[in-house]
Amino acid sequence: MKIPVNGGELAGAHSDETRYNFIQKTRDGIQGALSRNDETTLKMLESAMSIMQDKSTGVNIRI
Fold first, then answer.
1. Which residues have C-beta within 8 Å of that of residue 20, sequence separation ≥ 6?
2. Could you give the CA distance from residue 38 to residue 44 in angstroms, rounded to a whole number?
């Protein structure tokens, strides 16, 4: 992902064809949060994973 840290324009991002597995990145983040005993990050990542897998509960995102 080409995202500038200074918030400037995305130089060359339109030609970036790199593919990312966000499910795996989230799993890795969950493992990291577990190893650090970071409950806040763990809850956020588990929520994100649930949304990505369309298993959210209590939130109606359909029209």
1. 1
2. 10
